[in-house]
């Protein structure tokens, strides 16, 4: 049982380049999330998908786009990377009801130079 | 509005106790607690619901004071494995699963 799988684990981009972070879960969860974590800080929500076909902005959505490809997959795209987007990105999933916690992926460490 | 955690860091000797607080400026109906070890993903510990009972995980327990809009996490008889950063998460809206997280409390348990 893999849980939540993120790819890649590490990435270095040049300013202005684009890339897509991939996330897939095999737990049949409806809700999926993208968070970023900066050094010494908590997790901040970028985008959220309550169910297949729906997405919603979180606390820090500027500079990002998302796609909920199907129930399993939720991708995050940086169209034109900036140094301020250097961070660790976590994907997470959960069931719909607020009785269960999130399952997080292992993270993608992104550096924009 | 992100919840506020205190203290920001705590150092313990094995066997000692500690309390981590999580406060919100708005009414809460649930609080999540997670632990993150260095270089790893956060791991869900427990959820506290409004009107619910105090929860426990290993010798880690938590309480939820709805009137004070606050939750506390209790590390009892701490073990080396308790080291890590603890985060509380609270719902962003009246319903749904979107969580906003506190800034975290770094816990170091020494032998």
Structure commentary:
The complex is a heterodimer of chains A (113) and B (111). With 113 residues, chain A is mainly beta. Chain A has no helices and eleven strands. In chain A, the strands form two sheets. In chain A, strands 2, 4, 5, 6, 9, 10 and 11 form a seven-stranded mixed beta sheet that branches. In chain A, strands 1-3-8-7 form a four-stranded antiparallel beta sheet, with no helix packed on it. The model of chain A has no long low-confidence stretch (mean pLDDT 93). Chain B is mostly beta strands and 111 residues long. Chain B has strands at residues 4-6, 9-13, 18-23, 30-36, 43-49, 55-57, 60-65, 70-75, 84-91, 99-101, 105-110. In chain B, strands 2, 4, 5, 9, 10 and 11 form a six-stranded mixed beta sheet that branches. In chain B, strands 1-3-8-7-6 form a five-stranded antiparallel beta sheet, with no helix packed on it. The interface between A and B is medium-sized, with 27 and 27 residues.
List the helices and strands and how they pair.
The complex is a heterodimer of chains A (113) and B (111).
Chain A: E1 4-7, E2 10-13, E3 19-25, E4 31-37, E5 43-49, E6 56-57, E7 64-68, E8 74-78, E9 87-94, E10 103-104, E11 108-112
Parallel strand pairs in A: 2-11
Antiparallel strand pairs in A: 1-3, 3-8, 4-5, 4-9, 5-6, 7-8, 9-10, 9-11
Chain B: E1 4-6, E2 9-13, E3 18-23, E4 30-36, E5 43-49, E6 55-57, E7 60-65, E8 70-75, E9 84-91, E10 99-101, E11 105-110
């Amino acid at each position: 049982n893999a849980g939540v799988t993120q790819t890649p684990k590490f990435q270095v981009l040049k300013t202005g380049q684009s890339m897509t972070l991939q996330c897939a879960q095999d737990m049949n969860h409806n809700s999926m999330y993208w968070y970023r974590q900066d050094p010494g800080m908590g997790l901040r929500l970028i985008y959220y998908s309550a169910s297949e076909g729906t997405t919603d902005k979180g606390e820090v959505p500027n500079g990002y786009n998302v796609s909920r490809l199907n129930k399993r997959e939720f991708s995050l795209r940086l169209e034109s990377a900036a140094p301020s987007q250097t961070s660790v990105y976590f994907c997470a999933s959960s069931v719909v009801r607020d009785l269960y916690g999130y399952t997080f992926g292992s993270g993608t460490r992104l550096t924009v130079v | 509005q992100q919840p506020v955690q205190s203290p920001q860091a705590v150092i313990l000797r094995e066997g000692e106790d500690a309390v981590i607080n999580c406060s919100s400026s708005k009414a809460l109906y649930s609080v999540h607690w997670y632990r993150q070890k260095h270089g790893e993903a956060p791991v869900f510990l427990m959820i506290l619901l409004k009107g619910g009972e105090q929860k426990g995980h290993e010798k880690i327990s938590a309480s939820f004071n709805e009137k004070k809009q606050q939750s506390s996490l209790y590390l009892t008889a701490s073990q080396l494995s308790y080291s890590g950063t603890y985060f509380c998460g609270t719902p962003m809206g009246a319903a749904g699963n979107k969580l906003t997280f506190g800034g975290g409390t770094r816990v170091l348990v020494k032998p």
